[in-house]
Amino acid sequence: FTRVLSDDDIESRITSFVEDTNGRVWIGTYGNGVMLHGDTSTRVLNVDSGLSDNFIYAMISDRGNSIWMGTDNGLNIVDLTKGKEAVTTLTIADGLPDFIVQCLRMDEQGHIWAGMYDKGICRFDRESNAFIIPPGLEEWEYGVVKDLIILKDRIWIATSGRGILEYMISSQSLNFYEHCGAINLNRTRSMLHDKEGNIWLLTRNEICLSLGNKIEFFEQFGTFELRNIHALMTDDDDRLWFADDRGLYSYNPYADPPGTEPERYTLAIDLGLQKIMSLYRDHYGFVWVGTFGQGLIRLDPITGEQVLIGEEDGLVNGNILSIDGNAREIWFGTLGGASHCMLDERLEHLSYIPEFNNYGLKEGLVNNYIYQVYLADDGTPYFATDGNGVQVYR
Q1: What pTM was estimated for this model as a whole?
Q2: Which of 30, 54, 34 is nearest to 45 (CA)?
Q3: What DSSP element (H or E) covers 7?
Q4: HSE (side-chain half, CA atoms, 13 Å) at 297
Q5: Given a cut of 80, is residue 44 above it in pLDDT?
Q6: Each residue of 237-256: b (16+ CB within 10 Å) or e?
């Protein structure tokens, strides 16, 4: 390590760094303006140099060869193309919603976003030279914006009042994350979006890793609480199907308006005795519901009509732990081996009961307890067994 500046050089705490296209390092300070450090010299930019304020919170280099600074008195833009730094200031008089700009980010289109002390966030649109507040965030009531990250379809905002606020750009809806285990996210000071899509959160004395928008956690849909989910699938219409102790549901995550309650399907079985363990939608649009002890239900999701299929209909076992298939066939993993049926035009009719081929120890399975069956892209079935590894059928 080599010290380039000492405490005597700066005289106030450092708040931000940025490197310009000429390789110079800009060092923002809280009270002493900006230290511009080159290969051979260091000089100061402050109010005497044209800055609107000496208290610098954040800096960012844009695609137009300019350095943007967030201060206690608006934005400062330093143009690097004119030889000597030329400073432009943007304040409330220019449409900036707040005097104090705490953080700055740039999106993929090159627009600059600002997080503010009292007024939330805004975007500076280069084409119109105007500040724009995202719809739904005009009446800001979530405290100081400490940092923000612009993702493809959402914005993460670290606030002092409601932890991490997630703003969904398309639906204009909000999600709040105030705790990560024992970590209070209201204390988040800064965030980093890495190249793998993860988001790193820095608090006063902790670092928290989030998987960002690759994984979302849902505890409820609207007022519907999610609990004890046994089976889950998505269909070709992007609807989410799930089963819990209360029954079978489908949910449209893209509903307009958002927050629509899940749709419940009444089933002809006693869920108080046994549970739904597996779900599958076949080539004809019917939903196969695998139960623990009561065989299969084949459901028409449009009409709600259904048929029951049990061991008396040829299933090898009534405990259906897994279902997988393709346009030609379906496999069922059970506690008594595996069952298999071919799909043909007769199964366009809900009432038709297919013919099953059954496989167990006699047919070469090493174990009759099949916890999961999986069909590869080429149609080869794989079986996850109880204690005997994975077996393949060719």
Answers
A1: 0.58
A2: 34
A3: helix 7-10
A4: 25
A5: yes
A6: eebbbbbbeeebbbbeeeee
Strand 306-309: give its sheet, edge to edge: 276-281, 287-291, 296-299, 306-309
DSSP line for 302-338? TT--EEEE-GGGT-S-SBEEEEEE-SSEEEEEETTEE
Q: Per-residue pLDDT tens for 278-312?
A: 999 999 999 999 999 999 999 999 999 999 999 99
- Compute the distance between CA of residue 126 and CA of residue 110 in angstroms, rounded to an integer: 8
**Cα–Cα dist 266/263, whole Å:** 10
Q: 243: closest CA among 292, 313, 308, 309?
A: 292
CA distance 295 to 307: 11
Return all residues near 80 (Cβ < 8 A) that are at least 6 apart.
Answer: 20, 21, 22, 65, 66, 67
Token digits of residue 380: 């080869």
Q: How confident is the model at residue 2 (pLDDT cuts 50, 70, 90)?
A: very low
Q: Is the Cβ–Cβ distance between 151 and 213 less than 8 Å?
A: yes
Q: What is the pLDDT of residues 102-133, one digit of tens each?
A: 999 999 888 999 999 999 999 998 888 899 99
Angle at Cα 192 formed by Cα 216 and Cα 202, nearest 5°?
90
Question: What is the arrangement of strands in the sheet containing 121-125, beginning at the earlier edge strand?
Answer: 101-106, 112-116, 121-125, 130-132
Structure tokens at 56: 């610098």
Q: What is the pLDDT of residues 177-217, one digit of tens each?
A: 887 767 788 888 888 888 877 888 888 777 877 766 554 66
The Cα–Cα gap between 42 and 35 comes to 7
CA distance 232 to 243: 7
Amino acid at 244: D
Single-letter amino acid code for the residue at 382? Y
Helix (H, G, I), strand (E, B) or coil at 345: helix
In tens, the pLDDT along 340-388 reads 999 999 999 999 999 999 999 999 999 899 999 999 999 999 999 998 8
Look at strands 190-193 and 199-202 and give their pairing. antiparallel
Please tell me the distance from the alpha carbon of residue 23 to that of residue 138, in angstroms, as a whole number.
39
The sign of the dihedral angle between the CA atoms of 149, 153, 159, 165 is negative
Cα–Cα distance for residue pair 146/160, rounded to 1 Å = 7
| Euclidean distance between CA atoms 152 and 328, whole angstroms | 38
